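Re: Re: ligand-bound prediction request (bumping)

Still looking for help on this. To restate: I need the protein modeled with adenosine-5'-triphosphate bound, output as structure tokens. Inputs repeated here so nobody has to scroll up.
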Amino acid sequence: MALVEMRGVSKVFPAASRNGTAVRAIDDVDLDVEAGDIYGIVGYSGAGKSTLIRLVNALESATSGSIRVDGTEITGLRERQLQRVRLGIGMIFQQFNLLRSRTVYGNVAYPLQVAGVGKAEAHERVAELLQFVGLAEKAHTYTDQLSGGQKQRVGIARALAISPKLLLADESTSALDPETTQEVLGLLRRVNAELGITIMVITHEMEVVKSIAHKVAVMEDGRIVERGPVFDVFSEPQQPVTRRFVSTIIDDVPDRDALAALHARHPGRFVRIAFRDESVPQAEVFAELIRRDVTFELVHGGMEDVGGRTFGNLTLSLRGTDPDVDAALAAIGSRVETRELR
Ligand SMILES: Nc1ncnc2c1ncn2[C@@H]1O[C@H](COP(=O)(O)OP(=O)(O)OP(=O)(O)O)[C@@H](O)[C@H]1O
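Reply:
Sorry for the wait, this slipped through. Here it is.
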């Protein structure tokens, strides 16, 4: 059974005024997040990502459908029971949401105090967590003296204090610079790998998904329009919105303007070749072109490493007589996916 299981979930916010219209923020969503997953949820602003997360930690209640978290159906639970469910879920935020009146130690200890954990046990737990996030020597520092990356590490330690099975990260690196983002993502990877905690990451940044997620769901207008292992979604995006997201970090096919500019600089016929893993080595494809008296130049694209696997969509400019180029394309077309770009 999945750790988070959503079936036919919808969330409708009623109209704010008599003339207003209701908003269907989540529209008939099914989602399984397996224990141990790092699951990315991407979408543009207003797609419904935050609402989805708030349904999982029961800060919002679903209008219809079923939501199970760690085997417990949470729709229809009373507040007291919901509090117990929330105790199994950690959360980190874009703006960190730390208590400024407390030190690093005080912030991490806070959820333990709320849960009624004794002082000695809490002390041991906080020390262990600060060690884990690399902030042991900052225990007595107030949080406004910390950098953004350090603040988020405190946020992560605080979220882990209650030993959750599930960690929800809502745009947790969007306020950080690229280097600090990588540092925080590295920590989240350790939270998953070393502590076995399942993570749902909400983001509009594909770099974050590429860097840490195993699976990804793409949301648009309250629906999940595409989902799957990160490698599959990145290498063969199906929906227009997914292609737009993937193209923010991966040079796939040149768009019309780029193609025109490339044609002006490179004579020859353009072909896009899709390489997946090492199933067909690039060297074999290039050797085939040479054998057929076709010369080539790489004009667009490159190889990508996603989740330890490689793929690339390379656009080549091919030069040779038309019959030679046709014969070469027929020969390599039986081994790799090719598409002529005009
Ligand atoms: N409490 C609310 N009352 C009314 N409408 C809401 C409420 N919360 C969210 N919405 C609406 O639901 C839709 C989805 O919003 P949501 O915040 O979940 O999207 P998002 O993908 O997280 O966007 P962002 O990245 O901007 O936070 C939007 O149209 C939003 O205006």
